[in-house]
Amino acid sequence: MRVTFGYAQWTGEYGLFGHFAKRNSTWPPLNLALLGAVVEAAGHEAVIIDGEAEGLPAKKLAERILQTNPDLVGFSAYSPFFHLTCDAAAEVKKLNPDIPIMVGGPHITIMKEKALLPQFDYGFMGEAEDSLPEFLDVFTGSRDFGKVKGILFRKAGEIFSTGERWVMTEAMRKSDMAGEHPLDRFPLPARNLLNMTKYKLGTPVGRHNFTSLQTARGCPWTCIFCASDALKTTRYSMKSPKRVVEEMKDVAERFPYIKHIYIVDDVLTFWPEHIVEICDRMDAEGLKFTFESSTRANLVNDKLIERLARSGLIRLSFGLETIDPVMRVTMQKKVPMEAYPEANRICSRHGVEAMNSLMIGLPGETKETIQHTLEWVASQRDIKQANLAIAIPYPGTEFHEMAVGGEHGVELLSEDFSDYLRYGNAVTNVGDLTAQDLIDKQNEGFVMIYSKPWRWLPVWHKHGTLGFLLQMYRVLKLWKKRFLRWSSFQPLMRHPKET
pTM (2 decimals)? Predict the structure, then answer.
């Protein structure tokens, strides 16, 4: 049986920000590469069509999918782009109404039956590495889908659910703590099903072909803007360092042009011994990748960063969000504020580009709290880049519950998830801040941060010449606006007696 996975084109949703999204967020769909490998391990054939990387709108994606003559089609989707997946699936059904289509990912896991729209025949809730091969056995045999835990299916027009399914159980967590690594039992992601030449990323040492890679799943903390409970993200599990380096070797052998790795772990340094052993094994195998990732500012130290930098770490991101102490308590950001300047300094000391992520519009936000955060970040020379997002109350998060309930001065303006974009759009009013205020503050914030000359080279490295010029255009536009505002007040300032 042939299973064809489709990944919908999405960066066009961001308008001007789409250039930055296309350049920096066109990543190999690692989840589909892993599921493709699972399908192959179960004795079937897998195909992946990446509509984003290939530049395929919904209709073209559907045509390409059907050209592979699949027996089953699969999609995966996040909430803000679920409508794009729906469009692609509808186009497939329009061309071939009899083709069965399955869908998985965070959105359907959270929304469940509500998200199993008519163009979808089957839904996967939770993690699908175990449920998918079982489903395929039933699909090619008895069709008794009630035996497969973790899915939604239709029978006589009615939707049935067998509940969520997760790779990490309590028993597996204990085995992880005992030094075993349950994630090792899955096959290596089938990157060979993707055109890996399509994936490039701007780094401090040039723009290179890259791949994403996961060494561990989960984050033990519960910030209000993450769907921690709904997606069981607080359950932490690691691959063994040996297995991680096996995957790196596989990448090096199959795709020698790939020079950079983005480690998608939420907290790279949660278990320092783990990432250090990975680096030791990388060095022993002669692997010469550069790499980057994210972690918490209070989970780094000078010795650790120096060690990781020797094996190729060149960029590290910290989730700052805001410097306001009250808001940090509300959002459950349990990182002491003083850890950030120290972590940024440590990175700079060892030639690692420090990036801080900011989020405006969380509960308690005011124009003053935004201004204080932006001024602080703009002044920090050790922060080479900063990502500035508008807080979005995604379904399944505590922030969404607050917005729906009107708590902490948050007013939800839209229940259409296609509006839930973090750049150039806002779906909440917060206190005295309107949604338009948040959009304006985001634009001003990017200008404030990137008007600093010491950030121009990192911007050029990451975003390229066009991205640099677009950023500089925004800087000049705001400076012109401020100059005109300032000059309009000059007569009043020069001749106060005439007023």
Answer: 0.91
